[in-house]
Design brief:
Elements: E1 3-6, H1 26-37, E2 45-46, H2 63-74, E3 80-81, E4 87-88, H3 92-109, E5 114-117, H4 145-153, E6 159-163, H5 170-176, E7 182-189, E8 208-214, H6 220-237, E9 241-246, H7 264-277, E10 281-285, H8 291-304, H9 320-337
Parallel strand pairs: 1-2, 1-5, 5-10, 6-7, 6-9, 7-8, 9-10
Antiparallel strand pairs: 3-4
Helix pairs in contact: 1-8, 3-4, 4-5, 6-7, 7-8
The chain binds zinc ion.
């Protein structure tokens, strides 16, 4: 696979200082440190993007909502919160323009090269008008880049959205739910235990949705097992394009607000699995707040390139009691969708 890396200094200008917030510009520096450590930063192709007009997001967000946040961004003076989780700052407009430029770029080149967008703020919790599916907040997100890419690519062919952020992509589900053409596989921590408290398995009638729930405490073995359903979705839907919400907050020890113990093995396998079937992939950085950025991102990228896990941590194991919980949840998804897979 030919893979191009999108970075832009504007992505670092959305900045919570002087407040502390886990979603901060240092996240991208951690990604870069990780890529450098595994000799990927120099070797990957880099894109030169031109910042774009964030109004392109009106295809997936209500225009009134979009105008409101753009207005807030334009006149921001110091960082401020639009809800208890989500901030804006004087550099937010720059970051939104870089996001729009990344979308334009990805749509231009996708038929020749896959793209990984190392941008921020993340987007998969942003619904049509901000908060999605009754969540308490927008969860650090302002505009939904993956939903926009999927929406636009669905005009060109079959699209599969893969969201492996530890949190449910409620905004993406809300936006794409009515667009029957896009299949959405969302792997997240058991929805009753974590923000945004949505993402129940067994939902049908919401587009083509597999919500795969992993019990808190799940390790690589459970995660790798759950990927059987992702492989099934890829076979079944036979996508022309895969759009990825690439979150690394399920990495073992990444942060204090989630509890999945995946390591580099999982992220490398996901990358390989995707790239073995489809050559046109756009991945967008969602969550990941610590070690997941340094180790998960390189493992995933190498997987996309068909290469082995460069990090090579010992895979984590899941206690037997959690396996049965996991299997119950997976069966709910399979029963709802009439899938016959051995678990
Ligand atoms: Zn997340």
């Amino acid at each position: 696979m030919k893979l191009t890396l999108v970075r832009h200094q504007y992505f670092k200008m959305h900045d919570p200082s002087p407040h502390y917030h886990p979603e901060n510009p240092e996240r991208l520096s951690r990604v870069e440190r990780g890529l450098r450590a595994y000799n990927l930063l120099g070797s990957l192709d880099k894109a030169r993007i031109t910042p774009g007009n964030p109004m392109i997001y009106r295809e997936v967000h209500d225009e009134a909502y979009l105008r409101e946040i753009l207005d807030e961004a334009e006149y921001a003076f110091g960082a401020f919160f639009i809800d208890p989780d989500t901030y804006m700052s004087p550099g937010t407009m720059n970051a939104l323009e870089a996001l729009a430029g990344s979308v334009n770029y990805a749509l231009d080149v996708i038929d020749e090269a896959s793209v990984i967008i190392l941008g921020r703020p993340p987007g998969h919790h942003a619904g049509r008008s901000g908060v999605a599916l009754g969540a308490p907040t927008q969860g650090f997100c302002l505009v939904n880049t993956v939903a926009l890419l999927a929406y636009k690519l669905a005009r060109r062919g079959r699209v599969l959205v893969v969201d492996f952020d530890v949190h449910h992509g409620n905004g993406t589900q809300e936006i794409l739910g009515s667009l029957g053409k896009v299949k959405h596989v969302d792997i997240h921590q058991e929805y009753t235990t974590i923000y945004p408290w949505t993402g129940a398995p067994g939902l049908v009638g919401e587009g083509n949705l597999y919500n795969i729930n992993l019990p808190p405490g799940s390790g690589d073995d459970v995660y790798l097992d759950a990927l059987k359903l992702l492989a099934y979705a890829v076979e079944d839907h036979d996508p022309d394009y895969i759009v990825v919400s690439a979150g690394f907050d399920s990495y073992n020890g990444d942060n204090s607000f989630s509890n999945i113990k995946a390591t580099s093995a999982t992220f490398n396998t996901i990358g390989k699995m995707i790239a073995s079937k489809v050559q046109r992939v756009v991945a967008f950085l969602e969550g990941g707040y610590g070690v997941g950025l340094e180790r998960g991102v390189p493992a995933f990228i190498q997987g996309l390139l068909g290469k082995d896990d460069p990090v090579g941590e010992n895979p984590t194991k899941t206690p037997p009691s959690l396996w049965s919980l996991y299997r119950e949840r997976l069966k709910e998804v399979m029963e709802a969708h009439g899938i016959n897979l051995k678990v």
